[in-house]
Design goal:
2 domains, Ribosome biogenesis protein WDR12 homolog, Methylamine Dehydrogenase, Chain H, five-stranded antiparallel beta sheet, mainly beta, single chain, six-stranded mixed beta sheet, 468 residues, Ubiquitin-like (UB roll)
């Protein structure tokens, strides 16, 4: 079907301007797809004013204009781009999203106003923001087996865990510089520990595995060596009676917690005094490709939290005093680190595979259905989710809040998709379809990229995501 175009200027019937010089205003073009196909009156106009927190050259004139009520975000984006082009001839058009009263517009203006009960008689203030969607898909980093864990918390590199029992460091998201060998089972979880207090630019890492152990690693990612370099763990953490499913670092990086198929949550010390005592043997292992298992220190858990009745599938440690855990027993618990008690226990009707705490201290979790749910644990007397996102087609495997946004998070699923979400709309902002099989893990990287691993043995990187 051919696309029909409607061109209008100030003074014509399509668009009207108020307090503007008509001769300096640009030509606006809209496609037929922007029209209301449900028979609404296409001649109806709404007075709007575009506002933004973006800096010039992305700040449009603040004068109010009249726009057709059938326009959706695509048509509104064309208007804003034309206004910006009129201010700067060198401006390159880009897509925008639009907020009315703090909610993203995902239908025509007329439908939105009717749905929200907003009067069309007043000047409607519309805030425009950059579209949250990846602009570039980098070449995937290939592994030898399923990529089951990923951590993108360090902007210099990405840490992955794999079903071949190995963890890897990918410098700049492309070059495998370090291979972490030692586990005898699939690596299920990885964590980059806080580097505060660690000397000589070394970083510390933690990994969990189906071999029932956690391992601690130390390496210098800035050093010049022949790549890829094999590294051995300097500590083995024993204590779980079944596979370790999830690990998480304390905010200060001096402790980690772990969740296991033995139904427990355990706490472990990884403070600097213990690291210093083993520093000599660490340096020796850096020069030897075949690490000696006997030289590794073994430590026991400092405490164990018991309450779950099935696999503890996910743990996170967002605050010094509080740990959260999700389980296959259909529950999410909070734990007081000092007492080991669980003051908050939320029971759902589904198995949980993942959880994360972020945004406005909200809990995001997914499991054995396609729905990503959000809870507010601060609301007493109710265990109902405050948000539900249901665009996935299969089980949800991982979810992660953006570190600098209270609205944005990402999820992955067995349906092979990665989805970007904003609490201000029920629809996904973007669907990333870069995997050819189940997606098993996902994280943010450098604030503007999403990294994910899957059953296709690939680490995929989607970049150029603008989060305001």
């Amino acid at each position: 079907m051919e696309m029909s175009l409607i061109a209008t200027k100030a003074g014509d019937t399509g668009l009207g301007f108020r307090d503007c010089d008509a001769k300096n205003l640009p030509l606006f073009i809209f496609s037929s797809s922007e029209m209301d196909t449900n028979g609404s009156d296409s001649s109806r106009q709404i007075q709007v004013r575009f506002v933004t927190k973006l800096e010039p050259p992305l700040k449009a004139p603040a004068s109010s204009i009249a726009v057709p009520s059938y326009l959706n975000r695509m048509g509104l984006s064309e208007i804003v781009n034309s206004l910006l082009k009129s201010v700067s001839s060198e401006f390159e058009p880009q897509p925008f999203d639009f907020l009315v009263d703090g909610e993203l517009v995902r239908m025509s203006l007329e439908q939105f106003l009717l749905a929200k009960g907003i009067s069309a008689e007043r000047v409607l203030e519309i805030e425009y923001i950059k579209v949250v969607a990846p602009r570039e898909q980098k070449d995937p980093c290939l592994h030898d087996d399923w990529v089951s864990a990923v951590d993108g918390s360090d902007p210099r590199f990405i840490l992955t865990g794999c079903y071949d029992n190995i963890s890897r460091i990918w410098k700049a998201g492309s070059l495998c510089t370090h291979i972490l060998e030692g586990h005898t089972g699939a690596v299920t979880s990885v964590s980059i520990l806080n580097t505060t207090g660690v000397e000589n630019g070394n970083i510390r890492l933690a990994t969990g595995s189906k071999d029932r152990t956690l391992r601690l690693w130390m390496l210098d990612v800035a050093g010049k060596v022949d790549y890829p370099m094999k590294i051995g763990a300097y500590k083995v953490l024993n204590g779980h009676m079944a596979s370790v499913q999830s690990i998480s670092s304390a905010p200060l990086g001096d402790k980690i917690c772990s969740g296991s198929w033995d139904c427990s949550v355990k706490l472990w010390k990884v403070n600097d005094s213990e690291v210093e005592g083993d520093s000599v043997s660490i340096k020796k292992r850096k020069l030897v490709s075949d690490m000696v298992e006997e030289s590794q220190a073994e430590i026991e858990a400092m405490s164990s939290f018991v309450g779950h009745t099935q696999c503890v599938s996910s743990v996170t440690w967002p605050e010094l005093e509080t740990i959260y855990s999700a389980s296959w027993d259909h529950s999410i618990r909070s734990w007081d680190v000092e007492t080991g008690k669980s003051p908050w226990n939320m029971v759902s009707g589904k198995v949980f595979n993942c959880l994360d705490v972020g945004g406005r201290e909200l809990i995001a979790a997914g499991g054995s259905d396609p729905i990503l749910r959000i809870w507010d644990p601060r609301k007493p007397g109710t265990l109902a989710p405050i948000f539900q996102f249901s665009s996935h087609a299969s089980w949800i495997t991982a979810c992660k809040w953006h570190s600098s946004s209270q609205f944005h998070l990402v999820s992955s699923s067995y349906d092979g998709k990665v989805m970007l979400w904003d609490l201000r709309t029920a629809w996904p902002l973007a669907v990333i379809d870069s995997h050819k099989d189940k997606v098993l893990c996902v994280d943010w990287w450098k604030g503007d990229s999403v990294v994910s691993g899957g059953a296709d043995s690939k680490l995929c990187i989607s970049s150029g995501i603008s989060i305001q």
